[in-house]
Amino acid sequence: MFLINFICVKIHLMGKKENMMYAYLDDEDSKSDFNCKAAISVKIKKGGKRTYYQDEYVKKGYKGIMRICFIHTHLIDKAEVLNMARQSEETRKAFVGYFTEGMSPSEAIRNHEEILLLEGHEDLGDSRKNPPEHWVYSLYEEWTKQIKNRLHLESQLTRYKSSLF
User: Fold this and answer.
1) Do residues 29 and 51 lie in contact, with contact meaning Cβ atoms separated by under 8 Å?
2) Pairwise CA distance, residues 51 & 5, whole Å
3) pTM (global) more than 0.85
4) Which backbone phi and psi does 4 adopt, to 5 degrees?
5) Residues 6 or more apart in contact with residue 50 via CB below 8 angstroms
6) What is the top-level taxon of the source organism (predicted)?
7) What is the DSSP letter of 45?
8) What is the largest CA-CA distance in the chain?
9) Which pLDDT tens digit goes with each residue over 128-160?
10) What residues are paired with 7 via a beta bridge?
């Protein structure tokens, strides 16, 4: 049997095991921890003689069970919720591109906001597309560390190659 559980990202993720252990993404005292009950559970059963004879649903041709619980204990359609959303991979790639072009974090923020204004003003409040400053600065620090490590490795390789010849 194959089992996947998806839980509301506000509080925790569940693994693939039968005995589910909760791994909390945020601290328990965090304001984004709302003990949300929303979940999607998908169970796919393998075919076989034993399963076919024991399970009435498999006999009828149903090989999977999907349970959806859409009871959120927090707001999901208000403007304040958009501020707490995680940044998308698309936004991350855009900011890394700005840094690669030589922009500082403040220039990248200003440039990104101008692009969002040209596309439509409703995205400015969405932190998935318009991240907070502290996220941009931490991404910049992470990016500079990666660049420094890459440059250090390249300089060591060139020194090693030059010593061979």
Assistant:
1) no
2) 22
3) no
4) -130, 135
5) none
6) Eukaryota
7) P
8) 74
9) 788 889 989 999 999 999 888 888 777 777 877
10) 39
